What does this fold into?
Amino acid sequence: MILKYEQEHDQEYEHDNLMSNLSKEREIISKNIFDNGEKYPSPGKPKLSWQATFAGLQHRNYRLWFIGQIISLFGSWMQMTAQAFFIFELTHSPAFLGYVGFANGLPSWLFMVYGGVIADRFSRKKILIITQIIMMLLAFVLALLTFIQIVQPWHIILLAFFLGIANAFDAPARQAFVNDLVPKEDLLNAIALNSMMFQSAAAVGPAVAGITYAVLGPGWCFTINGISFLAVIYNLLKMKFAPAPKRNINKSVSKELMDGLRYLKTQKQILLIMLIVSFSTFLGLSIATLFPVWAVGILHGNATTNGLLQASRGVGAVLCSLAIASFGRNLARGKVLIVGLVSLPIFMILFSINSSFIISSLILVGIGAGIIAVNNLSNGLTQTLVSEEFRGRVMGVYSFSFFGFMPIGALWIGMLAEHFSSQTAILINAIILLIFSIVIWFMMPSLRKNN
It folds into this structure.
C-alpha cells in the first residue's frame, strides 16, 4: 500500500520540492545578509496577507500533516475533556483529576529523552505512524469499557499511563518532524500553524464533547477520538520525502543521549527557554486540571459548561497563533514570549477571584493566548537555535520540559484544591508564576532582544 502511494505522488513531490528550492533561492536573494561587516538594506516589512499567514500550507507534506492532525486533534480534545469530567463524575474528587494527569505524564520522565534519541536515529514518519496506531487502539479500549459499563477509575488511570508511553515517543518525533515538512524560512510559520490547528481543535472539540457527553454519554466521545486517528495515519502514509542519507549508527542509545545532553549544556539560551516552558506548564497550564471542579463547584454547571471553559481557552490560543503566524518573520519573539509569560499569571489571578461564567470565559481567552505566546515562541526559538545533528535529542528534552511537568503540575494543583479550594489552588500557582516571570523580565534582558 505504501508503495502505491509513492508511485501516485512522485510527480506531486517533485513539483513541491522544486517550489521549495525556488523559495530557498528567493530567501537568499531577499533576506538581509552580511557581507564584509555591512548589512544590506531591508526592502521593508512585507504586507500582511492570507498567503503570508498560511505560508506553510504551500508545501504538500505540511498540508497533509495539517489536515490529518486537525481532525485527529479534534477527537483527542473530545476525549481529554470527556475523560476528565467522567472520572470526576465517578469519584467526585479533585485529587483523582490530578492522578489521571500524573499517570499520563509520568512516562515523560521515564522515556521522553530516549524518544528524542529514537527521533534522531529512525524515520520520524514511521515513528509517528506507530504511535498514532497505539493511541487509536487505547481510545477504542476505553470506549469499549465504557459502553459495557465495567469501567473503573483505575482503568482510566492505567490507560492514561499507556497513552503517556506512546506520547513519550510521539512528542519528540512530532516536534522535530515539522522541520522535515517545510523549508527553514517557513519553519516559524509552520510551528505557529501547528499551534493554531491544535488550539482550533481545543476550541471546538471540548464544546462538542460537552454536548456529546450530555446527550450520548462519554463512550461516544472516546469512540470519535479513536476514529479520528485514521485521518492522520492515512495522510502520513501519503507523504513523500527525498531519500535521507543513511546515518552511521555506531553508538549506543545511552551514548547518543549523553552526547545530546553535553551539546545542550553549552546552549544557555535554549536551557533558559526550557526553564520558562517548565514553569509555565507546571504552574499555568495545570489549571485546566480543575476545569471540571470549576464547572460544577463554582459555576454550578455540568459537562457542557466544562467543555465551554476548555473551548474559551482554545479561542484565545487560536487568536494568538494566528497573530504569530501572520507576523512571524517580523516578530520580536523574545519580547513577545516574556510579555506572554508575565500576562499569564495576571489573568490567572483574575480567574481565581470570580464566579461568573461569562467573565471566566473571557479571562480564559487571555489565559489561552498567554500560554500559546510562551509555548509557541519557545518552540520556534529552540528550533531556530538548535543544530540539525542534535535536533531530535534537543526536542526530546524540550518536549520533556513541557510534558514532563504537566503530570506534576496536575498532581500539585489537584492536591492543593483537595486540601484548600480550587480558587486558592489557582491563586497560589499564579502568585508563584508571577514572581518567576518578574525575575526573568529583569534578570534576563538578553532574551527580550532575541528575534
User: Anything to note?
Assistant: Residues 60-91 form the longest helix (32 residues). Strands lie at 34-35, 38-39. Residues 192 and 279 are 21 Å apart (CA to CA).
